[in-house]
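Lecture notes, part 5. Sequence design as translation. It can be helpful to think of inverse folding as translation between two languages: the language of shapes and the language of residues. The source text, in structure tokens, appears below.
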């Protein structure tokens, strides 16, 4: 019994202890090399994130129609101050909708976003990026900067609490693992 069986060195001996530590370091290094390549930087605060500036304008679209050619709609518009439907005056009726432009902002996880909101139409817009806890106010003719690290993956609404339901844009944060080319 015992002969020919593999026996671990006695790591309590000083010399063997260094050999054991060396073997351990080699093992950790090999495992790290194997799995390190398979996993790109996915940590929420990945240092590889790009710094990006995105301009967003608070705008109001307007449409005017000749009541003689396009009858005034019989249906009530959706509730909220973001959409308006004005009955005919002097033969013309109008409709308006408040929006953020662009309606979709795409980022990769870990990107540092510097959102530049510029107020064009409407005097004031109390706004929020849901899921990121960012609350801010956009005023006409002024720049409002909102800085955040896109550390949460998903689809998040950017809403104006006054001009509902139309004044909504979306922040789409993609996992960095799907990034194949650097973000612009
Ligand atoms: Cu608004």
């Amino acid at each position: 019994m015992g002969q020919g069986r593999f026996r671990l060195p006695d790591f309590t001996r000083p010399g063997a202890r260094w050999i054991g530590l060396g073997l351990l370091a080699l093992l950790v290094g090999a495992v790290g090399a194997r799995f390190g390549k398979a996993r790109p930087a996915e940590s929420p605060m990945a240092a590889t994130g790009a710094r990006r500036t995105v301009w967003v304008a608070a705008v109001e679209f307007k449409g005017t129609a000749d009541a003689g050619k396009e009858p005034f709609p019989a249906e009530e518009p959706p509730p909220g101050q973001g959409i308006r439907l004005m009955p005919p005056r002097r033969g013309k009726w109008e409709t308006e909708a408040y929006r953020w432009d662009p309606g979709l902002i795409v980022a990769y996880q870990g990107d540092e976003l510097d959102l530049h909101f510029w107020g064009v139409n409407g005097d004031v817009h109390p706004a929020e990026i849901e899921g990121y806890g960012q609350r801010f106010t956009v005023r006409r003719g002024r720049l409002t900067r909102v800085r955040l690290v896109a550390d949460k993956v998903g689809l998040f609404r950017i809403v104006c609490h006054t001009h509902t339901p139309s004044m909504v844009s979306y922040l789409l944060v993609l996992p960095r693992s799907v990034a194949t080319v650097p973000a612009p």
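The translated text above is only one of many valid answers, since several sequences can fold into similar shapes. The longest strand covers residues 51-66.
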